[in-house]
Amino acid sequence: MSAHLSFARFAWRNLWRRRFRTLLTLFGIGMAIAAFVALVGFSNSFESEWKRAYESSGTDIAVVQKTFLNTSVDESDGATLMKLPDVASISPMILNMMDLTPEVNALAFGWTADTYEFESLHFVSGGRFHDGKSEVILGELLAQNLNKQVGDTLDIQGTGFKVVGIFHGASALEEGAAILPLDELQEISSLQGKVTTFHVRLKPAPPGVSSEQYLKQAQGQIEAALPGLKAIPAAERAANNQLVGAAHAAAWGTSLIALIIGILGIANTMAMSVFERTREIGILRAIGWKRWNILLLIEFEATVLGFAGGILGIGFGVAALRLLSRLPQTASIVTSTIAPSLLIEAVFVAVLAGLLAGAVPAWRGAKLSPVEALRYE
């Protein structure tokens, strides 16, 4: 019988005859991989929605005080930006997270009534708000969650705002957002004369100048005209704001803890397997198996557990992400779409977890002396 068939036969026999333990181990590593897929998928989707929002609006550069979301920029700096030769238009805005009801929180944007940002919205009912009036437009998803229609009143921070429009946005973030007149959001947020950022749309690049060169040129112009502020390309801004960074950190941190628990579960299973099969290992050594054969056998079993648990976890993770994309609390910031690269990463992580978990038990099993193992009762 070939070595490969022997590995498969012994591995399958060991895993099958201890079915309950095997199932518990698969469930443990499966939950760890499910956490990895769901949480990392959640954070990646969150970042993608930010990028989509920037791309749909045609924003090229975000001007901020620093790279975090909670920036505060003087609204008067907009006049300086509009004088720059490469700037076509600007959109001063405020971005905040607000509790609209005890069950529903949402992103709140503060825009001016004439901003170019409206070009990416499609109104399903009603229309734009007016500057200086207590009016609000709602993303279609948020309107459904709040059960609001055009003409209803929405209480925001103790002020009643009339719903004048419901729109369909290009991203889940916009679908679940409330958009207010900039001056009204400044008032209720005590940010008079301040904005979170300026979104900048550039003029077309001159002939012979690449988009990348033109973008860097515009960045230099903006930062020279407004010392202390940063001009960040829209895609970079989407990937590196405070909310996205926090989502990535939480996803990887939680996933790492879950993976460690899963690895310990496989390690415990393989350690018990080696202990219970001491005599069997001695017989294998006596009939000619080398140390490396034993080591490979145990690592093979651990890898099978990791791989099978990974496949199981991917199924759980995809289901969890779909659930999150439908919950009112999270539907506005995540979609159920998962990049194939994440699924490949999940399988790789699961297999690696199995290899790591089986390393010490495999080493201990390979070290067993045939004579001592045969004497074991």
Q: Can you walk me through this structure?
A:
The protein has helices at residues 3-17, 19-57, 77-82, 140-146, 172-175, 182-188, 211-225, 234-239, 242-276, 278-286, 291-324, 340-367, 370-375; strands spanning 61-64, 73-74, 87-99, 105-111, 122-126, 135-139, 153-156, 159-168, 178-181, 194-195, 197-202, 230-233. By secondary structure, it is an alpha+beta fold. The protein folds into 2 domains: 3-49 and 244-375, no CATH class; 66-228, no CATH class. A hairpin with a 5-residue loop joins strand 3 and strand 4. The chain is elongated, with a radius of gyration of 29 Å. Residues 1-5 have low confidence and may be disordered.
Quickly give the structural class. Answer: alpha+beta
Mean pLDDT across all amino acids: 81
Order of helices and strands: HHEEHEEEEHEEHEHEEHEHHHHHH
Indicate the proportion of strand residues: 15-25%
Compute the number of structural domains.
Answer: 2
The helix content is 55-70%
What is the number of E strands? 12
Pfam families: FtsX, MacB_PCD
Domain ABC3 transporter permease C-terminal: 255-370
Subcellular location: Cell membrane
Protein name: ABC transporter permease
